[in-house]
Design brief:
With 293 residues, the chain is mainly beta. Helix content is 6%, strand content 66%. The longest helix is centred in the first third of the chain and has 18 residues. The N and C termini lie far apart (70 Å).
């Protein structure tokens, strides 16, 4: 009986060894260079560190052809190569350390992307998976087709683009300019400070709880969902709010009025402060809450 158990355990160990290849490779890199990363399936975790090196650890799927890991000038390329008709067995989990000031371009098909402590520009794209990253003052573009997108910042100005088709978008303590969009999901912006904000979703709520700067512009539009805008601090803007099937609650004073006696829509137009900026809010099926936090 013991001999049979030993054979089974040995067999499982051999199968496990054949299923995944361990990776542990390092290259010298420029302190503020470019790192391009591509992995079809599995996961990609990128972390900035103080060394002028790029390190890749993790596991490769059993059907992976090779891991391309090379440097050309100031650009380091990391790419998981798989057969054209790959099917199963290509899931690879990569853990990548890069110089903190690197700029990164990360692409995946069926994989989550998780980035931290990277101070350069970021372009992050996956088809099926979540994208999570930190903004540290350089531009960030994060996109998923089916998955959530989350960007956390340090209130340093940059341009942030965050988009998904099916999932939520959450931006926390980012600043400067933002374009955030979901087709089916909520869009949330919290504890930021902005010159320009464009928020949109088809089926979901829009939540903005941040500061709009002097001459700032905010556009928030949804088809099916509520819009909740709470300004942090004073706001100075011309404000235009409209709904087709939903009420408007305004803490700044003026009441909304019916847009037509024949339709259920409501509208609200007024100027707050000196009217330096511009705020446009609209929803087809949902209510609007407009207030100061």
């Amino acid at each position: 009986m013991m001999k049979k158990i030993s054979v089974i355990i040995l067999g499982l160990l051999l199968v496990s060894a054949a299923a995944a290849e361990e990776v542990d490779r390092t290259l010298d890199a420029a302190p503020d260079g470019q790192v391009d990363i591509s992995n079809i399936a599995g996961s990609i975790t990128v972390k900035g560190w103080s060394r002028d090196q790029v390190e890749v650890t993790g596991t490769l799927g059993k059907k992976v052809e090779e891991l391309v890991f090379e440097r050309d000038g100031d650009t380091v390329t990391i790419k998981v190569k798989v057969p054209k008709r790959s099917g199963r067995g290509i899931d690879s989990d990569l853990y990548i350390s890069v110089p903190q000031n690197s700029s990164i371009d990360v692409s995946a098909v069926s994989a989550d992307i998780d980035v931290s402590d990277v101070k350069g520009e970021q372009e992050l794209n996956t088809v099926s998976g979540d994208v999570t990253t930190e903004a540290a003052g350089e531009d960030v573009a994060a996109e998923s087709v089916s998955g959530d997108v989350e960007v956390r910042g340090e209130n340093k100005d940059c341009e942030t683009e965050a988009n998904t088709v099916s999932g939520d978008v959450t931006l926390f303590r980012v600043a400067g300019e933002v374009n955030a969009e979901s087709v089916s999901g909520d869009v949330i912006v919290d504890e930021g400070s902005f010159n320009r904000v464009d928020l949109s979703t088809v089926n979901g709520e829009l939540i903005f709880q941040s500061a709009l700067r002097k001459d700032g512009k905010l556009s928030a539009e949804t088809v099916n969902g509520d819009v909740d805008v709470e300004f942090v601090g004073d706001v100075s803007a011309k404000i235009d709010v409209s709904t087709f099937n939903g009420r408007i609650r305004n803490c700044f004073g003026p009441d909304a009025t019916r847009t037509s006696k024949y339709t259920p829509g409501w509208g609200l137009n007024f100027t707050e402060g000196d009217g330096d900026g511009r705020v446009e809010i609209s929803t087809m099926n949902g209510g609007v809450n407009l207030c100061r936090k």
